[in-house]
Each structure stands twice: as C-alpha cells, then as structure tokens.
Amino acid sequence: MKRTIKKTGMILGIVLLTAQLTSCGKKEITSKVAEKTVKETVIVKEEILREPVVFITGIDEGTNKFYKSARSYFLNKKYEVVDHAFSLQEIITWLNKNHDGNKYGEIHIVSHSNPWRGLSLETIIKGDRTTKESLRKVMTQGTLPGLNNVISTKTKIVFHSCGLGKNTELMKTLKDAFVTDVVPNVIASPYYNVFGGEFSDHYLAKPYYGFYPTAHSPGNVDLSKEFARTYSEEKDIDWYDALNNKAERYIGDPYTFKFNVAVKWEFDYTNSDDAMPNFKLKEEIMDWIAEDELLSKEMNAYNIPLEKFRWRALKKGNTLTIKGKTVVVCILKPLIKPYGDLEHIKPDTDNLRLYASN
C-alpha cells in the first residue's frame, strides 16, 4: 500500500511539473479541487382535484326552460349535479358536508340574474335575492356560513348567470363569501348564458335593452326606432325583425324576450310632521321621486328613465305605498365565430374576452 501511495505521488509530481513547463511561462499553478455535489431528488405530489359539481339553483316557470336545459347540459358532460340548492347558504353547507378530502376543481352555479335585481339565488334560506348589499348584510351578521378549507388556488367557481360579469361589485362580494385560507377564483360572463338552444346546448349572447311602462307598449315599430337611436353603433341588427323574432331561426339570428322590473316603497306618516302627499297624475309621482335625494339615487342606479315605469300611489291609513313597474325588452345577439363555418363561439371560461374573473 505504501508503495502505491509513493508511486502515485511521483506520477502526480511529474504531471504538475509538466503542467508548469507548458503553462506559457506562468509562475503560479492553480489547482482545482472538485467538489462533490449531492443532488437531492424532490418528489412533488400532484394535487388531485375533485370532479366538477354543478348547483341548479331554481325551478323554471312557464315556458322558460333555463334550469332544465342547464341541468341536461351538465349531466351530458358527466358532471355531478345538485338540485334544489336555492341559496348560497345551502351551496356552502353542501360543499362543506360533501368534501371527500380532495379539493373541489370546478364549482358551477346556475342562477337567473339581471343587471337590476342581481341573482335570483337567495343569500340564506328564504332570504333576499343575492345583491351586493344583501350578501354583505348576511356576511356581516354572521348568518351566512363560512366555507371550510375545501378549495385550492386552482379551483374555479363559475356563475352561469346572465350579465353577472359586468357587476364587478357583486362579483367581489361573492369572492369574499367563498374565501378560505386561499382566495377563490370567481368567474362569470358579461354576456347572457343560453342553455338548450336549437343549434347549441350552451352559448353566449350580447344583450340590448329597451323599456316601456307595463301595459303601455308603444308597438314594435316605435320600439325598433328607439333601439336604433340607443344603439346607433350597431349596424348588423334589423331591430324590427329582431323584435318580432322569439328564437334563433338560424345560427346568430337576433331575437327578443321580455321581463319585468318592479320597485316598491312604503312610507309611514304616523309620527311625521309632513303631510301625506295626494297624487292625481303619474307625473306628480315622478316629480316627487326626482325631488327626493334617496329615491332619485336609487332610481339612477337602475339607469332606467322614470317615465318608462307605470307608477301608482296607494294609501292605507298612515301608510303611503309607491309602486312602479317597467317591461324590459331584451334583444339577444348570439356570439358567433368571425370566420369559418357558421357556429356559436364556445363558452370557454379561460377566454378573458368571454368571461370576467375576480
């Protein structure tokens, strides 16, 4: 062994001497010491997310098949569908109770909505419709349960609610309602969601609005002229034709449906120093509303002219009730691909042109 060491030392000495003689006259010899690097293998466990779950939050009325069609659409996609969860309270409770250890991947919530009344989805059981104000109220009172640690940063909470993507304040409040140790990703489209169409099971459509007082329709000719004035930049829609069309006759064909928006106020004059007003004309009611700071502020938020409502004033004892109702005429223009075959644009929740995220 000693010999081996000595021989090795001699060979090393010769190598060093040779290196010195061939180093272009350098006087210093640099020796590099190889350092042994220990590589550690880190095994990252991929997060397994639960399959999508869908909440159908209402029951259809009349000929409207929104909820039934949405249910069929998601069942065909093999998603788990939960019926008869009519409030956020029931949805959150179900998510907490049915958590199986894997975080939820996609949570879909189907609910009617419009820009004036928020979601038809209740905040708590038998509570108010979900608006920014009503939701913040139950959260502050503590009557809305909190969501357990059942979602991850990859979870998507998708609301299939018409126009909700434009209501940024409500979307922010919904985000707060679902927050856990992570901040949820709440997604909704600014367009209308249409399920069960003749040409597509699910597509999006751009809305255009007109109004008239309940039971006082001006007729489609005058309505079409009003739409043309309001939306003068839109050149691709024949407004009169669209007003007479109740469904898509071909892919992308604009059509019309109607719904009501109502307001109601009650004023108690029992201990008031003011005399109860006596209205004879609807114009007097509108003037009275316009002169009241709180009422005019509320109506301005609707962005519907006062004259588009049918106003009534009712007296009972010391209580004055003011009611107003308008018919909203909504023309929908389905979104279609700008090129290729005539097709609806696929409602892709990752497409930021189609969906907003908060």
Q: What's the short story on this structure?
A:
It comes from Asprobacillus argus. This protein has 358 residues and is α/β, with parallel strands linked by helices.
Protein described:
It comes from Asprobacillus argus. This is DUF4347 domain-containing protein. The protein is of the alpha/beta class and 358 residues long. Helix content is 27%, strand content 26%. The protein is built from nine helices and 14 strands. The strands form three sheets. It has a six-stranded mixed beta sheet with strand order 2-1-3-7-8-14, with helices on both faces. Strands 9, 10, 11, 12 and 13 form a five-stranded antiparallel beta sheet that branches. It has a three-stranded antiparallel beta sheet with strand order 4-5-6. Helix 4 (132-141) runs parallel beside helix 5 (168-177). The protein is globular, with a radius of gyration of 33 Å.
